[in-house]
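seq as requested:
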Amino acid sequence: MLASTLQDSVLRELRYDPRVDAAKIGVSATDAGVVTLTGAVNTYAEKLAAQAAANRVFGVKAVANDLEVKSFGAAAHKDSDIAEAAINSLKWRTTVPEDRIKVAVSNGWVTLSGNVDYYFQKKDAQRTVSGLAGVKGVTNNVTVTPPAPKASPSEVKSEIEAALVRSARLDARRISVRIQDSKAILEGTARNWDEAEEAETAAWNAPGVRDVDNRLAVVP
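struct tokens:
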């Protein structure tokens, strides 16, 4: 796809997404499918929404998100305020074991650490703090240590493959699965980033998986 066509498509998708103020975002693209987002946004949640919008566009193979989060007025908060808000938000999130997650904030950047049983808990913790006012970025260092699996590696592989086939958003024929110790390795191609992420989530949901190596290449 021509760079100019891809650039125009991404700009249109940004304007279409109500979570994003597209007027503040610059877009450049290459013929190879690499899109770069520049400019400034009000919140980290908006930065993530812009990246998700770009990833949805047909022909996009990679996104460099260089958007800067600049909080002004009511959106500007001290690190101590952000830390307190993050702790309270995690406490009210029923899917997250808040007593096992630690929060650190430096210049608006939140770092999460600790240990949880399941990948969805790690992702939910990140989503919870990403939407808080004043947050400029999130580093998720939470580790996943699932309960000891009762299934063999071959059974775990079969579980993941079955999950890929069940998903209406995936073309499972393009994806292969390998199990190495407690790591699931995904290889093959995905039609877009949403599909690649869906496949990774399916792998994480398998019993006993402690890590996922997503090697899927995006080939529209």
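The mean pLDDT is 91.
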